[in-house]
Amino acid sequence: MSTKNNLSPLSDEEMDELAEFLLSDETSDETMMPDRLDGYLTALVTSPAMPPASVWLPKVWGATENDETAFSNYAQVEHITGLIMRHMSSLIMTIQENPEACEPIFDSAVYPDSTREYVDGEMWAYGFMTGINLQRQDWQPVFEEPEKFKILRPIYLLGTEDLTEEEEALIETPEQREKLAMLVPASVAELYHLWAPVRRVVSDPSLRRHLPKIGRSEKCPCGSERKYKKCCGVTTEAED
Question: Residue ranges of the alpha helices (H) in the chain?
Fold first, then answer.
């Protein structure tokens, strides 16, 4: 089935095909694997404003130009990028219709001293944090407001390399990490709802023109009790 003009979710076979390509010798060691890619795309979907594909798509292959993928031909470029775009489209539809129905693509891990598999959300969370860092200024209010940061915290703990000693103690065991991974779907839904007012303004220029002007020192309309210039105003002013 051609991926062109096809907006249906990826089938299991297509997801396997995408995974096989991402793991192949045609990609670099820095190319995102399916779990990290899913986290990365989820961050973009739930963000205050979706960046253009020309900004986010190259990061899938790696952080630098040296990580460029060796596609065999243009047909392969179209096909693989089409699979990625369709997966993003399915995430958008799922999260827009019912954010609570989000089902992250997690890996599993088995440890020598244990007889069971643990849910492993670390690479997914790392991908999500990569998506945040792509637009860190837009996301800055979440890091500055404790109540907002609590929503992101499970993802942050699993997906951030430079943690404090206190934070490291919260992810020492497989049980701790699995418990945090189980909190991720709820975090995604809350983050989507958190940014909903900002997304409506950013995506609709006519709405932005007709909204009452919010003073930079007034309380932010998102309900954080912070001044607008220190909260959502960080995002909207960056767009102007």
Answer: 12-22, 34-46, 53-61, 74-97, 122-134, 136-144, 146-159, 165-168, 174-203, 205-210, 233-239
